[in-house]
Specification:
119 residues, Nuclear Transport Factor 2, Chain: A, 2 helices, GPW/gp25 family protein, IraD/Gp25-like
Length: 119
């Protein structure tokens, strides 16, 4: 078992845990929504995806963002999962990322959607 993300407590008041596929999903979310430079000992960790909330939208930005996100996910999680699909959408003040992947340990295929909104 691993720590749950975001950090929290379970019904017994202990640190919440994440099992198997839930832990992988938590790791993907951390990579997606962490800005480079935010982690002290890993300055290149993350994607900077949150900055997309404040950028003008367009096909060029969407394509560049998709490559950036795919590269970061592969760099940081490529030993745990094989990414088979990725779509990044920005609408109004919301970014939605849909990721399709295969968990290498179990060969389980999963599709997950992650959404963040601006203030």
């Amino acid at each position: 078992m691993q720590l749950g993300y975001p950090y929290g407590f379970d019904a017994q008041g202990r640190t919440a845990q994440a099992l198997g596929d839930d832990h992988i999903r938590d790791l993907i979310e951390q990579v997606l929504f962490t800005s480079p430079g935010e982690r002290l000992n890993r300055p290149t960790f993350g994607t900077g995806l949150a900055q997309l909330l404040f950028a003008p939208t367009g096909p060029e930005l969407a394509t560049a963002t998709q490559f950036l996100v795919q590269g970061a996910l592969q760099q940081w999680l490529g030993d745990l999962v094989k990414f088979t699909g990725l779509q990044v959408d920005s609408s109004d003040s919301t970014v939605t990322v849909t990721v399709q992947y295969v968990v290498l340990a179990t060969q389980r295929q999963i599709s997950a959607e992650f959404t963040r909104g601006g203030a």
